[in-house]
Amino acid sequence: MKNKLVLTLFLIAFALNAQEQNYSYTLEQAISHALTHNYSVINAGRDIASAQQKKWETTAAGLPQISGNVGYLKNIDFTLSGVSGNAFNPDGDPNGISLFAFGTKHNMNGQLTLSQLLFDGSYIVALQASKTYLKFYENAQKKTNTEIREMVINAYGNVLLTQESILIFGKNKAILEKTLSDTKETFKNGLIEEENVEQLQITLASVNSNLNNLKRVLGIANNMLKITLGIDIDKELILTDKLDNLTIANVDLAFSQKDFNVSDNIDYQMGANFEKQRQLEYKLERYKALPTLAAAYNLGYNSFANEFSFFNANQKWNNFSNIGVNLSVPIFSSLGRYAKTQQAKIALEQAQTKLSETKQKLNLQYSNAKSEYEFSLEEFATSKNNLNLAERIEKKQQIKFAEGLSTSFDFSEAQRQLYTTQQNYLQSMVNIINKKAALEKVINKN
């Protein structure tokens, strides 16, 4: 029984540890994770929560308000008041001054006030502005999600590109080492010059250097992706998608032919939101010329004593209450309000001009993104054909070199051409993924 318990605990601990340490994601899973755990996404959600509280704060300003206060006053030395000498005594000296002290040693009062705003044009505008304020942060969250999605796609693709490059350079290194070994044996037999061996050694050294650098770059690319996903860089991250599969999935020429609706773009929506804010600011300045009406009801008790006896059962407390209405009417501000209104109007016109500019820039941005995506498709097809040609040329040169029909320089040149073409082909695959993501960002496709 004891052994079974130990085994069970061990399996649970192992499962929890494996779950905690390992992240294994496809590209879509990585995007989904980032849209929940990315640091910028988390703070964007907090901005919305704060804006919701701000909206309620504005709404509450027009709802009933209750306030209370309790006051206590002890007169150490009374304030004296002076009156004419015969004010209370007809026989007194009319030129004399009599001093009197009014009040008691101890005073205490408690009061509750209920106030209600009845009409205020500024409050009406503030309610509308609070909705626009919240909408701004909702749009900001959408923009953050769109940017994070593109960042994940780019970072994910960079890791796959580096992994594939390491594999290719590893294969090139193995082939090159085999060729160098055979060439050394041929040189020992005196059939070729030492220059052929040295040329291959130079090429091998270059391949080794590039391979070591790619391994270092892979660690950096992995950590960049982890940070984008909101994962601790000490955790293990496994990418389950393959570069060629993602490339094929993103080859869609028909996608670039779809119509572009500029109002779907998040930057345009934020510009429209900004214009709405300026409209409300202009409206607010105009509404400040309207009267403000408010009402208040006060209820309280006070008590007076020469000894501190306010908590005694027989202490007398005096109640008081009142209700009032206050109407405030702006009459003349020496054109100050007019100046503020004109400033708000100018700001509105600037926002409208800015929105028109944004629309034109987005149309241009769409055209550019569409063109770059279509070019990436063409570049991929060209790179694929070039890779086939480079592989055939390198293979022929290798055979010629082995048979002594080609120089080491020709063979090395064919190898370098192949290595460059291999990298161009891999980069063209990543470009398709990245350029499509950029186009999707412009048209706001999630």
Layout of strands and helices, then pairs:
Layout: H1 2-21, E1 22-25, H2 27-37, H3 39-60, E2 65-74, E3 80-84, E4 97-101, E5 106-120, H4 121-188, H5 194-229, E6 236-239, H6 243-250, H7 266-287, E7 292-305, E8 318-328, H8 336-402, H9 408-443
Parallel strand pairs: 1-6
Antiparallel strand pairs: 2-5, 3-4, 5-7, 7-8
Kindly describe this structure:
With 446 residues, the chain is of the alpha+beta class. It has a single domain, classed as Outer membrane efflux proteins (OEP) (Up-down Bundle). Helices cover 65% and strands 15% of the residues. The protein has helices at 2-21, 27-37, 39-60, 121-188, 194-229, 243-250, 266-287, 336-402, 408-443; strands at 22-25, 65-74, 80-84, 97-101, 106-120, 236-239, 292-305, 318-328. The strands form three sheets. The chain has a four-stranded antiparallel β-sheet with strand order 2-5-7-8. The radius of gyration is 41 Å and the shape is elongated. The two termini are 54 Å apart. The mean pLDDT is 90.
TL;DR of this structure?
The protein has 446 residues and is α+β, with helices and mostly antiparallel strands. The protein has a single domain (25-65, 119-291, 333-443), classed as Outer membrane efflux proteins (OEP), CATH 1.20.1600.
Low-confidence stretches: none
Q: What percentage of amino acids are in beta strands?
A: 15-25%
**For the CA atoms, what is the radius of gyration?**
41 Å
For the termini, the CA-CA separation is 54 Å
Quote the CATH topology: Outer membrane efflux proteins (OEP)
What profile does the largest beta sheet have?
Answer: 4 strands, antiparallel
Given helix and strand content, the structural type is: alpha+beta
CATH level 4 superfamily: Outer membrane efflux proteins (OEP)
- The beta-strand count equals 8
Helix and strand element order: HEHHEEEEHHEHHEEHH
- Which outline best applies? elongated
Reported CATH architecture: Up-down Bundle
What oligomeric state do the depicted chains represent? single chain
Number of helices: 9
Helix content: 55-70%
